[in-house]
Design brief:
Helix content: under 10%
Strand content: 35-45%
InterPro entries: Cell_wall/Cho-bd_repeat, Glucan-bd_rpt, Glyco_hydro70cat
CATH superfamily of one domain: Cholin Binding
Strand order of the largest sheet: 1-2
Organism: Liquorilactobacillus satsumensis DSM 16230 = JCM 12392
GO molecular function, one term: glucosyltransferase activity
Number of strands: 58
Keywords: Glycosyltransferase, Hydrolase, Repeat, Transferase
CATH class of one domain: Mainly Beta
Structural class: mainly beta
CATH architecture of one domain: Ribbon
Radius of gyration: 61 Å
Largest sheet: 2 strands, antiparallel
Pfam family, one: Choline_bind_3
Number of helices: 2
CATH topology of one domain: left handed beta-beta-3-solenoid
Length: 735
């Protein structure tokens, strides 16, 4: 309008309002924005002091001045029926002075409802006129009662402050409301007043904003006390309930017929609260979902639960479970009706689906949780079977449905699969030991002579490609496969020998003689060649720098030349011994060239230190040689003497011309006495040698003969030329 040069006063053109300086008394009803009356409001056909009069100079000048132009430009404005009146605006009535009759509504002023004095017992407004006055009884000099009065029949009446008895009216006392019938008596129990149902407690107090249960059903009385009938009602918490025509509150699965005649199914919980945007189970145990806005039961559609999960509701509104085909897509729902997403779902036949983030069953090759899986066109996971991919390659899915990798034995055949699960076909495959296979069009390792990519190759019975070795063909001819596994041609120097091979790779022999067992087959096992013991593996390769066990269970060691060693050997830091035939000695003695002896244990290793062999305690030096005819110091500092058999001696011994004495355990006695078998005694000095002559031992003067035997109970002519006598028991010299 501004663009057309038309000024709109306060921009409120349809009502032509400018300002309202005056007031007038009107009958007012509180409505919502749609013009629907609010039955709970205290302003309900109530006299109201409203700012609805006036307009002044500007209103008189401009009121309706632009109305014709507006009608010309915007005719639709004057054809639309107004909500409050149900009639279109009259473009011919130009408002130069405002009053209530022009209003479609008035702003809420927060004042005005009680500015007009009235008597609440009679609902009459006080007035004074020449022909009709209505004033409080007290002002008329009449006797007046006020408040609640109980008569002789125990019936309660009420008189207003103006002295008038309340009849056919509601009375407020404090926060409570009461109703008095046409006889002026207080009502109790259920009653219909002015077409509305109310309920009053035995003390007459009106039920307001309260639920009432009669034992089987529940009812609700609004804030104004009117029973809610045949309608929805929203409480202060925003929850909705529905009450039937008889006022009964709906619970459970409920059929409701709307004004337009359409019947809808809704659900109300045990408290009567309508379920919206959630699911509920009724007494039939079936799960249903109800729209978040209307609360109507959802059919043939999805419903989202508060936790973000989804249901699908069938034509009966019941949540489906298990595998479902919805809009041409395979989906899966758990037993609780929730749609499965980003997870597996098991079908009744034991097969599995995987549902993606949209809840749709995937098909074809999929990588899930780092594992390659495959799903058929119906969404079922493939297990224990092959599957061909779009690029023509193949997978094999194991019992868990996971694509296998590496070496696999399937249906009795050894097959190989790459790290991505694709089967190796018409290609080479290197094994962990460095050897190579070639897998044919079926993925099976080839054997024998093969021409691949124009080159002659050879593969052993285990499928491993032969490299740097000879191979005999079925016709008795021979190939030599180089480091790449390709059969050589022409002149070749192999193992220091000049050989020749034809264009087909077969070796030219003519008068060639292969040094083997005479039939052209390479020798294996133990062989004596040129007087030397050698050993060849099952593939004919000579063993060097390694042990080999022979058929009889014995062992040989082949040196760097591949010859079995003999005699004493130090191998891997251990002293071993091998007989003249190369067999390793175990659990036996062996005499060395210098006359010394070794003992080889069950591992064939020369023992050291103290050993009990055949019930005898023997000793061996760090080099494994047995101690014989020599002393041996033990860890505790004591000494043994090992005789010619290596056994520790005991008792009196003459060693290197010296008399010594050894305990029963073989340890040499030093600085102590030793008793001989005949009861005589020796004393062994710090060097373990028996002392002779006169000795002072432990404070006693004793005497030992030249053979070391102590003198007891006898006399000896000593060096001083005197005879000395010694005690029979102690041997101590007598004075």
């Amino acid at each position: 309008m501004h663009a057309q040069g038309i000024q709109a006063i306060n921009d409120w053109v349809p009502d032509q309002i400018y300002n309202l300086p005056g007031e007038e008394i009107v009958t007012a009803v509180r409505t919502n924005g749609s013009g629907v009356s609010n039955q709970d409001s205290v302003i309900n056909n109530t006299l109201y002091d409203s700012h609805t009069v006036g307009g002044g100079q500007y209103q008189a000048m401009y009121g309706g001045a632009f109305l014709d132009r507006i009608k010309q430009l915007y005719p639709d404005l004057f054809e639309t029926k107004q909500i409050s009146t149900g009639q279109p605006m009259n473009p011919n009535e130009k408002i130069t002075e405002w009053s209530a009759k022009y209003f479609n509504g008035s702003n809420i002023q927060g004042r005005g409802a009680w500015y007009v004095l009235k008597d609440w017992a009679t609902n009459k407004y006080f007035s004074v006129s020449s022909n009709n006055s209505f004033l409080p009884k007290q002002l008329q000099g009449k006797k007046a009662s006020t408040g609640f009065v109980v008569d002789s029949k125990n019936r309660t009446k009420f008189y207003s402050t103006s002295g008038y008895q309340a009849k056919n009216t509601f009375i407020q006392d404090g926060d409570n409301w009461y109703y008095f019938d046409n006889n002026g008596y207080m009502v109790t129990g259920a009653d219909k007043i002015n077409g509305y149902n109310y309920y009053f407690l035995p003390n007459g107090i009106e039920l307001q904003d309260a639920y009432f249960a009669d034992g089987t059903k529940e009812y609700y009385y609004s804030k104004s006390g009117k029973q809610i009938l045949d309608q929805y009602y929203q409480d202060s918490n925003g929850n909705w309930r529905y009450f039937f025509k008889d006022g009964t509150m709906a619970k459970g699965l409920t059929q409701i017929t709307a004004v337009n005649g359409q019947t809808v199914t809704q659900y109300f919980d045990t408290d009567g609260i309508q379920v919206k945007g959630n699911a509920a189970k009724d007494s039939d145990g079936k799960l249903r979902y109800f729209d978040g806005i209307t609360g109507n039961m959802v059919v043939n559609s999805f419903g989202e639960l508060p936790d973000g999960s989804w249901l699908y509701l069938d034509e009966n509104g019941v949540a489906v479970t298990g595998k479902q085909n919805i809009n041409g897509q395979t989906m899966y729902f758990n037993a609780d009706g929730r749609q499965v997403k980003n997870d597996f779902g098991e079908l009744a036949d034991g097969s599995w689906l995987y549902l993606n983030s949209d809840g749709v069953a995937v098909i074809g090759e999929q990588v899930i949780n780092g594992k390659t899986l495959y799903f058929n066109a119906d969404g079922k996971q493939v297990k224990n079977d092959f599957k061909q991919l779009a690029d023509g390659s193949w997978l094999y899915l194991n019992s868990d449905g996971v694509a296998v990798t590496g070496k696999q034995v399937i249906n009795g055949k050894t097959l190989y699969f790459n790290a991505d699960g694709k089967q190796v076909k018409n290609d080479f495959k290197q094994l962990a030991d460095g050897s190579w296979l070639y897998l044919n069009g079926d993925g099976v390792a080839v054997t024998g002579e093969q021409v691949i990519n124009g080159k002659t190759l050879y593969f052993n019975a285990d499928g491993k490609q032969v490299k740097n070795d000879f191979k005999q063909l079925a016709d008795g001819s021979w190939l030599y496969l180089n480091g790449d596994g390709v059969a050589v041609k022409g002149k070749q120097v192999i193992n220091g020998k000049t050989l020749y091979f034809n264009a087909d790779g077969k070796q030219v022999k003519n008068d060639f003689k292969q040094l083997a067992d005479g039939d052209g087959v390479a020798v294996t096992g133990e062989q004596v060649i040129n007087g030397k013991t050698l050993y060849f593996n099952a593939d004919g390769r000579q063993v060097k720098n390694d042990f080999k066990q022979l058929a009889d269970g014995s062992w040989v060691y082949l040196n760097g030349d591949g010859v079995a060693v003999t005699g004493k050997q130090v191998i891997n830091g251990k002293t071993l011994y091998f007989n003249a035939d190369g067999r390793q000695v175990k659990n036996d003695f062996k005499q060395l060239a210098d006359g010394s002896w070794l003992y080889l244990n069950s591992d064939g290793v020369a023992v050291t230190g103290e050993q009990v062999i055949n019930g005898k305690t023997l000793y061996f030096n760090a080099d494994g040689k047995q101690v014989k005819n020599d002393f041996k110091e033990l860890a505790n500092g004591s000494w043994l003497y090992l005789d010619g058999n290596g056994v520790a001696v005991t008792g009196k011994q003459v060693i290197n011309g010296q008399t010594m004495y050894f305990n029963a355990d073989g340890t040499q006695v030093k600085n102590d006495f030793g008793e001989l078998a005949d009861g005589s005694w020796l004393y062994l000095g710090a060097d373990g040698v028996a002392v002779t002559g006169k000795q002072t031992i432990r404070g006693q003067k004793l005497y030992f003969r030249s053979n070391g035997i102590q003198v007891k109970g006898g006399s000896v002519l000593e060096e001083d030329g005197q005879w000395h006598t010694y005690d029979l028991n102690s041997g101590e010299e007598l004075r």
